[in-house]
């Protein structure tokens, strides 16, 4: 059986905003494209500026929805004051459980009061929000979805992505975690057009599966990859920045990685180190303190994306591997 990890970029469709979907292939560990569904027709901005300012937040969420919303509101004000048009929050921005089962208890549908509050926050501040890792109600009472929600500056939900690769691990020297025991895995790869380029939407543990990011770039034309996360202290120290820079280099995309940081409770601690990385793999945004609460700001430079891809045109090479 032959399959391709890289493929030539398909012809652009300049007049449509697309959700590109896939389902797992029984012959592969990774999903492969199946269908393209047109969600809405909206012309791309022909007068798009050559650069646009974005921000990534770092926070320490707790098991208090109101307190976390207050923190997010403050960070939105900081991002708006800095001129950012998009603010990316980390996984579990709205809630981090202190006890097993608590996340299921607070899980809501996307039209519930929690998400409505964040939609209002985006609208009132005229800013796009990337909300990675929202506890969306699942198909039964025993499961939720770890959902990345993208809200525009009018307060409308533009796109959602359910985390595809779930965190089922025994962390060396750390915790044992089985996310699949209470979370439904997503099946769709999601890329969406925005004023900040074409966004590839992912969540946390997805970062360890490079083929997902290859598809977002080479099959779905992503320019900016969103990686909200809550990496553990142990895995973050070892792999966080290395993996993020690798994804940026191999896809020639910007990577925006908003991170949870510090101790959420007696049982859980996150690594932090929120980063914005350019298509050459250079860190262009980082908080001065790996554990501090705040934002980092950087400009998405579309001419840099074009330059890197033109000088090293890896999208024009098709690499196939035969599996026996």
Automatic annotation (TrEMBL):
<feature type="domain" description="CN hydrolase">
    <location>
        <begin position="52"/>
        <end position="302"/>
    </location>
</feature>
<dbReference type="InterPro" id="IPR003010">
    <property type="entry name" value="C-N_Hydrolase"/>
</dbReference>
<keyword id="KW-0378">Hydrolase</keyword>
<protein>
    <recommendedName>
        <fullName>CN hydrolase domain-containing protein</fullName>
    </recommendedName>
</protein>
<dbReference type="InterPro" id="IPR045254">
    <property type="entry name" value="Nit1/2_C-N_Hydrolase"/>
</dbReference>
<dbReference type="GO" id="GO:0016811">
    <property type="term" value="F:hydrolase activity, acting on carbon-nitrogen (but not peptide) bonds, in linear amides"/>
</dbReference>
<dbReference type="Pfam" id="PF00795">
    <property type="entry name" value="CN_hydrolase"/>
</dbReference>
<dbReference type="InterPro" id="IPR036526">
    <property type="entry name" value="C-N_Hydrolase_sf"/>
</dbReference>
